[in-house]
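A quick aside before the break. I want you to see a complete sequence-to-structure record at least once, exactly as it would be stored in a machine-readable document. Don't worry about memorizing anything.
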Amino acid sequence: MEIQKIMDVTSVDVGEIAGRLTKTFAKRAAESDENDRFVEANYADLKNVGLISAGVPRELGGGGADVRALCKMLRVISGACGSTGLALSMHTHQVAIPAWRWHQQPTARPVVEPLLRRVADENIVLLSSGGSDWIDGSGTAERIEGGYRITAHKAFASGAPAGDLLVTGAILEEDGDHTVLHFAVPLAAPEVTVLDTWRTMGMRGTGSHDIQIDGFFVADDKIALKRKAGEWHLAFQMIATIAFPLIYSVYLGIAESAREIAIGLAGMKPVSHRRQSIAGRMDTALTAARLAHEHMIATVERDSPSAETINDVMIGRRLVEENAIRVVELSMELAGGVGFYRKSELERKFRDIQAARYHPLQKEVQAEYAGAMALGQPIERIF
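That is the input. The structure line, written in tokens, reads:
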């Protein structure tokens, strides 16, 4: 199926545009999953209809979608193909964060505008190395004349086969201090290699391969941020607040689609009190996940990233995780044995939803962070 190009994404709701892609994405999902194949064709369609630049401000040539609209977009796509949704969420949050700065921090506009214009004008795809970096950082930066030589191995770079820029960092050690330097690395650089490593239980089509960086030079004026390793920084308050509602839209979308499949399969059998109970518990868990996700979005819309917003977002993240996983488990129960067959699609969604467990803040860390906030204790090193 050829996807019709949307010439002006700003005139159409991005969730509606995403909806036009779902049948095509759903048809491709099984083959991608079975063959550990990156969802390359879906990325071509996302570019064609303007969803790669959906979060870029309209004034800079993008779709102008806010976080709420982008969450809807990701939910819709993820219901059809979880791998496409998760990979796209990693690009989307890397756009949404500088877009938020463009709107909320006028002094940051000269810094973030060139990147946002490139996303809009060139359809470039941004990769995140957050899966192997997070607060501690990873890799090494060696100071040399005019800048730094970077050596690093980055894991979980979702969308790697389609990536143009890796937004990442490395640790500079000087006089016993460890400083994380943040910068972008072009995937086309000869010092950068995408390693074919992504063989997993679920989310098999995300192309979340490892990336090796061997001696890449970053000039002093290309360092976007310097921060102390191993503790929360103001920039990461912003990143955590904005990124995770987008990422967890994916898991909500998977749970919603699993519920619809299960209801359809259950309708082919006689109704029993037991099936009614399972369906009721499934819908209760889904409502809990939706309410928790709405709480995450509302936190972003306060436009005030802080230690408190991290707490609110991560409480929501934990609740979405637990309830979305429960929805899919109950969907399998409601469907019965037919749900065990690949053709039902439920078993793929069951595998894909497990990835919700592994993003920061994982449950024990989240509980410690929330408890420290409640008791007035330091949270700087809880991550």
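Two observations worth writing down. The two ends are 44 Å apart (CA to CA). The chain has a mean pLDDT of 96. We'll return to this after the break.
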